[in-house]
């Protein structure tokens, strides 16, 4: 080799040289372990609810028979405990099944990385409530902005006019498959008082009127809540827009809210007939308002036919 001529040879690290695919797989598996449920903390401000429904009963039964097939995801906290990132339904099902441990994959994640993984994993659910999307989108958008070194501000521009919101919301819109404006509308729902937000989840208030109502102050929203109860009606989009306009002009008083809610809406639907919670909780939320009576009548007719068939078999 000629003098003055340098030859650079990059040597593979000793561990990498002798590491096989099998050993890499074993290393990955070593991060999957059974962790005592008592050592796993809930994710702070977790926006997704865990319902005690038929799906949960089936999950509990499956875990009793087969164990947890897909590990939950956790991260190790500074105090030595674990923080649950995804798998809240699996954790609850394990508790109901009487298990003391949960199969988990331990990941090294920062707070913002954990938020993004938590939201991504839960947005795969088949049914997501408006309130869940609202807080999930808000948490993820703020995490994305912090990761990019952008300042996090409470007020987001609906049209993405400021650079911080526009850049992050473009990224989020692409990932979740919704427009920036729709993401903004969902985030606006986080400004609703809990009682009205629950009505949105229960489909008692439509999505778009709820977005307009979110601009009202907390006091104004509670006044509206009283007016809705008194008139046994919820605001239409036109009424919600009218209240927002009066609010922006500084003219939205309690009397104005009551007056708007007393207006007769065109094509106003029949008011709910049943007030007994024992009846209303058995009526599926998919049944449109005004059709509850038809649903109950059909259910009773079906039940009566069932009784008659049983009597016929007993003869």
From TrEMBL:
Keywords: Chromosome partition. Transmembrane segments: none annotated. SUPFAM superfamilies: KorB DNA-binding domain-like (SSF109709), ParB/Sulfiredoxin (SSF110849). It holds the Pfam family HTH_ParB. It comes from the Bacteria. Residues 33-123 form the ParB-like N-terminal domain. The keyword DNA-binding does not apply. Belongs to the ParB family. PANTHER family: CHROMOSOME-PARTITIONING PROTEIN PARB-RELATED (PTHR33375). This is ParB/RepB/Spo0J family partition protein.
